[in-house]
Design the sequence.
């Protein structure tokens, strides 16, 4: 699936010799790219339960974001946002409202696998 298909933008018109090169009004912003990448990233962790929203994307060179929201049994919206920072000393996570904690063991391996799969997915499905 192409970036324009993920974003619901029209396909690029064909070029015909002798015609002026077409101009485009649909310029892709940073937010458009993040949304398209996140649309792919959310698929890495299996089916999303009904009533849930999930996002997973690379925000900057060393920052990754996991976001999930859902309605609890009382019908109240619950959310969680986790920020992962890749630093020379390791990978650190911060759950909204808390301090950074260094990832270790299985949690570190899971993050590495998710990041690797994400990068492969966006490279092959979006930027190919």
Sequence:
């Amino acid at each position: 699936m192409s970036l324009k298909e993920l974003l619901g933008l029209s396909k690029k018109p064909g070029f015909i010799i002798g015609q002026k090169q077409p101009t485009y009004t649909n310029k892709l912003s940073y937010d458009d790219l993040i949304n398209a990448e996140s649309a792919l990233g959310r698929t890495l962790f299996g089916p999303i339960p009904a009533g849930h929203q999930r996002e997973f994307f690379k925000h900057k060179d060393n920052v990754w974001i996991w976001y999930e929201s859902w309605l609890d049994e009382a019908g109240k919206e619950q959310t969680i946002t986790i920020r992962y920072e890749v630093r020379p000393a390791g990978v650190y996570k911060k759950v909204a409202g808390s301090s950074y904690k260094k990832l270790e063991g299985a949690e570190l391996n899971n993050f590495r696998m998710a990041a690797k799969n994400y990068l492969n997915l966006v490279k092959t499905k979006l930027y190919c």
Q: What stands out?
A: The longest helix spans residues 105-125.
